[in-house]
Amino acid sequence: EAGVAQSPRYKIIEKRQSVAFWCNPISGHATLYWYQQILGQGPKLLIQFQNNGVVDDSQLPKDRFSAERLKGVDSTLKIQPAKLEDSAVYLCASSSLAGSTDTQYFGPGTRLTVL
Amino acid sequence: AQSVTQLGSHVSVSEGALVLLRCNYSSSVPPYLFWYVQYPNQGLQLLLKYTTGATLVKGINGFEAEFKKSETSFHLTKPSAHMSDAAEYFCAVSDRGTGGFKTIFGAGTRLFVKA
After folding, report:
1. N or C: which terminal CB in chain A sees fewer CB atoms within 10 Å?
2. Residues 6+ apart with CB under 8 A from A17
3. What residues in B contact A41, CB-CB < 8 Å?
4. What is the pLDDT of residues A58-92, one digit of tens each?
5. Which residue has the higher pLDDT, B20 or A101?
6. How far is B2 from chain A (nearest CA, A)?
7. A25 at the B interface (CB within 8 A)?
8. CA-to-CA distance for B108 and A3, rounded, in angstroms?
9. Residue A70: which residues within 8 A CB-CB, separation 6 or more?
C-alpha cells in the first residue's frame, strides 16, 4: 500500500513570495490533515478535511494560508504572502475515518525555509 | 481543553538500558492517547495507542505504555534500548470537543542512544 505522498520535499523562498504544497493521501482515506511543525515543537493542526469538506480550520491563518481538497482526494496548501515565521515543516496526514481513535498516517513533509 | 506535556525535550540512554519517556495530559473527557515516532527527514509513525480496555498497551519495536488515569499519565517504556531507537517521540491526546474530534501533540522528546 502506497503511503502519503508530499511534494516538494524542500522549498526555499523569500518573504512575501507565494508557495504551494501538494499532498496525495492513502487511497480510500476520507480524512486529510495539514500540520505545521516548527523546529523544536510538535505538529500543530492547520486544517482537517473530511472528503472535500472542511471539518476544522480554526488554527489556519486565513489571511495568508489557504487549502483545498477538490474531488476529495489530493490537496494543496498555499501560503501567500509568506512570512519569516512560516519557516517550518508542513506535514500532511490521512486517516480512513475521522474518529478520535483513528490512526493518522503521515507523509514525509515539506521543509519550508523563508528568507 | 486538551493539553499534552512531555517532560524532557532530550533523553539520553545507553544501549541496552531502560527507555522511559514521560507524557502527562489533560482532557475534560476520557481521552484517547497515542505515541508517534519520527525518524530524521520522515513523517510521524504510530507506535501505539490507547482507546479503551487494558491500560497497558503494547506497540511496535518492543515499546509499551501504560494509561494511568489517576496520574493523568501515559509514559512510554522499552526494557532495552537499541541504537535504532534514536528518534523523536511525540505523545498525543485526542478527544471530542465542541468542534469535533481533535488531536493535540506534545512538543516531543528526542531520544539519544549511546553505544
Report:
1. N
2. A81, A82
3. 107-108
4. 899 999 999 999 888 999 999 999 999 999 999 99
5. B20
6. 13
7. no
8. 23
9. A52
Mean pLDDT of chain A: 92
Residue A53 contacts B, CB cutoff 8 Å: no
* Mean of pLDDT values over B29-52: 89
Distance separating the N- and C-terminal Cα atoms of chain B = 41
Rounded CA gap, B106 and A51, in Å?
Answer: 27
CB–CB contact A103 B46 (8 Å): yes
Q: Does position B99 have pLDDT exceeding 60, yes or no? A: no
DSSP string, chain A: ----EEE-SEEEE-TT--EEEEEE--TT--EEEEEEE-TTS--EEEEEEETTEEEE-TTS-TTTEEEE-GGGS-EEEEESS--GGG-EEEEEEEESS--TTPPPEE---EEEEE-
Reply yes or no on whether the pLDDT at B74 is more than 70.
Answer: yes
Q: How far apart are CA A68 and CA A49, in angstroms?
A: 9
